[in-house]
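Input/output pair, single chain:
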Amino acid sequence: MTYDAALDSALQRLHDEGRYRTFIDIERKKGHFPHAIWTKEDGSKKDISVWCGNDYLGMGQNPTVLAAMHEALDATGAGSGGTRNISGTTVFHKRLEAEIADLHRKEAALVFTSAYIANDATLSTLPKLFPGLIIYSDALNHASMIEGVRRNGGAKRIFRHNDVAHLRELLEADDPATPKLIAFESIYSMDGDFGPIEAICDLADEFNALTYIDEVHAVGMYGHRGAGVAERDGLMHRIDIINGTMAKAYGVMGGYIAASAKMVDAIRSYAPGFIFTTSLPPAVAAGCAASIAFLKTAAGQELRDKQQLHARILKMRLKGLGMPIIDHGSHIVPVHVGNPVHCKMLSDMLLEDHGVYVQPINFPTVPRGTERLRFTPSPVHDPKEIDRVVGAMDKLWSHCALNRAEMSA
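Output:
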């Protein structure tokens, strides 16, 4: 066997299928989000506008967040120096966890280096705490949730996406005495649809199951203090474990769970993904805490309102052009293309010809045949930016002779 030949073959398959992914080298401009500088492969540079970032509210540029990070960096230095159990717990980590617990009205919180690790570590650890646990997982859950459920070695049931009736069938088929947990999301980021939180909580009560919700695309964005869709709907008290991130709407880095003090204590004591990982740098923890605190305020609500307005405007204008928009009423704006080659071509032309950066979303992130461009408008994508992206999409859609029949939500 020639190893290089095997690698060549594997990479060529991605090229042949039109889903080989390339890094776009961008330099964000502090204070000028969403503008950035794209450095091309030939070394030339181009001013662009970022339309696919997860810094949904521009908090990565917020002066309050930057000031907190500078202060912590000057006070403590760069890294944390260890795992949380061995010299890596600082006052900044404790403040952050207190801020998160307050956000979700839970007794405690636990910070991880990413929401992926938080999902994986927590879901793979729960069967150690509840022997025989069955996890019921939505079919479109994040890869990190799927991985955590897969690795835990326990029983799992996959229910059809947002299909509460199918979930009920699965719950009814299992022993009532067996411990159970339902894992789902509040917003599914590729289509922008919402999970049926209240209906799932009702089933959890009926079948004595724990509830685990992934709010990573919702924290900072929904609820009067930014705690997510469960807060918006008055349901946080019915969720046992909430997973969130500081790397999207909060604009920094890291993930977490919020739950009862006993649950958090057990996870931190048993989860290898937490125990053996160096903790976040204190400056990062300080920035996260500052961002969460800011978005709890009226100023945070102003950003949320403006972001939602810009998302509605973009959807309305693209729909007006007959674009196949997937619209479930969230802040995410997916435009269905349905072909990986066309999707990549559109993305490349938007970037090269119009300075609009929106990454193609292809398999395995979404199923084959559902490839799309995923726009994430922010409060600072002003009307001129929206005009530019709408005009570019209209021109390129015609150039590529793509279908303009609108998709239903």
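The chain has a mean pLDDT of 94. Residues 180 and 208 are 7 Å apart (CA to CA).
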